[in-house]
Design brief:
Number of strands: 14
Mean pLDDT: 94
Largest sheet: 7 strands, antiparallel
Strand content: 25-35%
Number of helices: 8
Order of helices and strands: HEEEEEEEEHEHEEHHHHEEEH
Shape: globular
Structural class: alpha+beta
Distance between the termini: 20 Å
Oligomer: single chain
Length: 343
């Protein structure tokens, strides 16, 4: 999976489980997308967005792995039609790190309806198809290899029978399109770094981080069989990622690379890759086509093959799922241009 059901805390309420983060050039600006509440979990009483939660896009403008801008979505309870009202706030500067900062309301609307603000900012939230694909046998084999320090064991696996675990499944998307001028204000250039957080209000009046996502596939690589690490990654902040988790990431990668014998110094290779993975932030240059590939990470489009890229980099050897975007059954939505239709 990308980040689907990635830790015990995230599975407690899948409305707060962020499955994927996408970041790409849109029609009028830069598009941010997260997906939550995946249908693979099964029926839940009230699908959609948690009315006591908040969903935030974090934007680093100066490369210090600390957010300078936060776009925060909060949702109401579902009404008798199943819709939820929502409010979008923008928090800038030092307050961007504060979950209690009120910020400025920049958009309001209801799920399933497109909202366009006078500034040109656009938002949409609602049920959509899942654009991500994964082959479950390869997924689990990679997780075992990183956990056990072995080669990826695909003996008995037939690539011709590869299947997309998520074909036909749905998510609830949160989509934000921001004019580039708004993102450039206060920054040092066109390079930004983005991550997203889902948090839940606590009885004590605080906020508990439930899920955090930046680069794709971090949790499938390192936490499939280490769920405590999954919880700690979700609760942490990007600038702490390497100091806190860097050594564990290095050891996991070095074990696989040593098993394959594809580097003279597996630990040196692992250290280089770990410094790409940490801090866990998705980089992007405003105004450019998004591509998440082997040579460059520049945002992430809905059709980038993130598993092949991340699995192969971690192992320092080619690893393929045997499937691609053709395995996604959803069609483009008529409701909003950046989401697949729910089947």
């Amino acid at each position: 999976m990308s980040h689907h059901l990635d830790s015990p805390i995230a599975r407690q309420d899948i409305r707060l489980d962020i499955t994927d983060l996408y970041l790409f050039r849109g029609q009028t600006g830069t598009v941010f997308v997260i997906n939550v509440c995946h249908s693979i979990f099964g029926p839940i009483p009230e699908p959609g967005y948690h009315p006591e939660g908040m969903y935030e896009f974090k934007v680093d403008l100066d490369g210090d792995a600390v957010e300078d801008v936060t776009y925060r979505f909060t949702f109401s309870q579902r009404d008798d039609r199943g819709q939820q009202s929502y409010v979008v706030r923008c928090i800038r500067g030092a307050d961007a790190v504060d979950p209690h900062a009120p910020g400025t309301v920049v958009a309001q609307g209801k799920t399933g309806e497109t909202v366009t603000a006078p500034s040109g900012l656009r938002t949409w939230a609602g049920r959509a198809g899942d654009p991500f694909w994964i082959e479950p046998d390869v997924l689990h084999a990679v997780g075992h290899a990183l956990q056990d320090g072995t080669q990826v064991n695909l003996s008995g696996w037939d690539a011709s029978r590869a299947k997309n675990l998520f074909a036909g499944h749905t998510v609830y998307a949160v989509v934000l399109e921001v004019p580039d001028g708004e993102l450039l204000a206060g920054g040092t250039g066109k390079r930004i770094g983005v991550w997203a957080i889902a948090s839940l209000a606590t009885d004590a009046g605080g906020w508990r981080p439930i899920n955090r996502v930046g680069l794709p596939m971090i949790h499938p690589l390192f936490t499939q069989y280490n769920e405590d690490l999954g919880n700690r990654l979700n609760a942490g902040r990007p600038f702490d990622d390497f100091p806190t988790h860097g050594e564990a990431v290095i050891q996991a990668i070095a074990g696989v690379v040593a098993a394959y014998g594809t580097a003279e110094d597996p630990k040196a290779y692992a250290s280089t890759v770990a410094n790409r993975f940490c801090p866990n932030i998705l980089p992007y240059e405003l105004g450019t086509p998004a591509v998440f590939g082997f040579a460059v990470w520049n945002g992430r489009s809905l059709t980038d093959n993130a598993p092949d890229v991340m699995f192969s980099l971690a192992a320092n050897t080619p690893i393929r799922l045997g499937i691609g975007k053709e395995s996604v059954t959803s069609k483009p939505s008529r409701a909003f241009p950046y989401v697949p239709a729910a089947v």
